[in-house]
Amino acid sequence: MTFTTDRISNPVISSLEPIPAAMAAFKRLSTDDKLGVLWFIYDGMGGWVTPAATGAARLQFAEGLLEQVKALSASDQLTFMRDLVVQKNTPMTRAYGVLTNNTKLAFWYQLAELMQAGTVVGVPEYYRLSSAAAEVYQSIVALEFGQQITVLRKVAVNMGYDPFA
Questions:
Q1: pTM
Q2: Can you spell out the DSSP letters for the chain?
């Protein structure tokens, strides 16, 4: 028996298991490349992420953390985001770490909204993804919508520091 597919072969995600392959490719990126990919995904599909992210999320549990982030200087906001990515143990990354999976995804959506509004440090207009990050980004956006949300949720869940893990 032979199976065919209309999918374009992608050098970054060529596995039969697109979600684990996307996660593996994302994990290989640098901290700033991971943040860049997240920014471009939320910027490009933010309107679609919202309903999926907030469906079961209790964003009120993240409101205090979002307020803390807004109160930081721009450089400290960026440091916080980097600390989330590398799972550094800080009071704020622990606060993030105990959020539910859907709330973590909704938190990143809210963070992206705050970045677009200029309340939180955003990605500079001149910023361009590295070639490796651009490949990962293209691979993720080429996935089916449900797979994209699954990858974003897994990325969000793997950030922060969970003191109970």
A1: 0.83
A2: ------PPP-SSS-SS-HHHHHHHHHHTS-HHHHHHHHHHHHHHHHHHHHHHHHSS--GGGTHHHHHHHHHS-HHHHHHHHHHHHHT---HHHHHHHTS-HHHHHHHHHHHHHHHHHTSS----TT----HHHHHHHHHHHTS-HHHHHHHHHHHHHTSS--TT-
